[in-house]
Design a protein that fits this description.
Elements (H helix, E strand, L loop, with lengths): L1 E6 L4 E5 L5 H8 L5 E11 L6 E17 L4 E9 L9 E6 L4 E5 L5 H11 L5 E6 L3 E8 L2 E9 L14 H15 L4 E6 L4 H7 L2 H5 L1 E5 L5 H9 L4 H4 L3 H17 L4 E3 L1 H9 L3 E7 H9 L3 H13 L3 E5 L4 H8 L3 E5 L5
Parallel strand pairs: 8-11, 11-12, 14-15
Antiparallel strand pairs: 1-2, 2-7, 3-4, 3-7, 4-5, 5-6, 8-9, 9-10, 13-16, 14-16
Length: about 350
Amino acid sequence: MKILNKNLKEGKVKIQITNIDDLWYLSHIIEPEDLIKGRTTRKIKIGEKEKAVKKTYFMKIKAEKIEYSPSVLRVGGIIVEGPEEVEKGAHQSFNLELNSEITIQKSKWYKHQLNKLDDAVKEKAEILIFAIDRENACYALLKPKGFSILASIEGEVEKKAFSTETKDFFAQAVVQLEEYIERYKIKKVIVASPSMWKEKIKNKLDDKIRKISVFATCSTGAEKGIDEALRSDELKSVLKEDRTAVEIKLVEELLTEISKSGKASYGYDQVKECVEAGAVKTLLLTDKFLHDKKEKDLFEEIDRLMEKTEKMQGDVYIISTGHDGGKKLQGLGGIGALLRYKID
């Protein structure tokens, strides 16, 4: 994402979408009541007998509904500014995609929204996660909303007792790894495997791949191994700036505090009480929790919680349900908090 103009005094930020992942970030930034300005198409009927034709206009709408998909972000709302032939107050949608340019205007930009904007702007090194054991290998690209599985493969393994023969499955899996590194211009590879296979796999990698690889331990080469790799201590140096790793770490910290009845809270009513008391250090909400509240027109009360948390010098994180950490938080009701002090 590129920021073309930023004027927070007027609440305006003009951006250009330069990466398909920007759509996910924008789905967490744009809210109902925001003003969205840019070019969009609309069917116009010229004359009573003429057929409706599509024309491109420069318009401003007040957002009402935001619908995300991996290829397009649809923002629907009411026209507040446009050409004379377009009726104000009519409904209009922006279909945001790669290379779209829009101006987002808010009455107030919250800290967590600006953080999301900063995350989208940062140039990201493409990271590939490669989980492998003697029978399975799984390849995944790290994404802001979790990870995207590229492929899973199985090898033929001798079933004789105590056999460790892999029929060179590791070499086959590494050939596929090399292809993905080339195709996606990978800058960093996370190679995760059971510890007993780590050296064998290392020996199959050429020097060029070894230099961009970090080795971690997991129990399986299936998709579960990808989740385990993201939580492993070995990856903190690689993923410390990555949003997915940060989110997973925060949820794990929340779960640890909950397990020992420590400085944590979860569930809407309990978290609200902690926010009101000024005890919340870090507020965690899942994207699904926010989406559900918006759908039920209950977002204002959540908005107040986030605003109050930030006013009390707390941090707010919107956690993606696209990874294991987000799913665990959703299982707790979609909202939780790390506290400055324990509340009885």
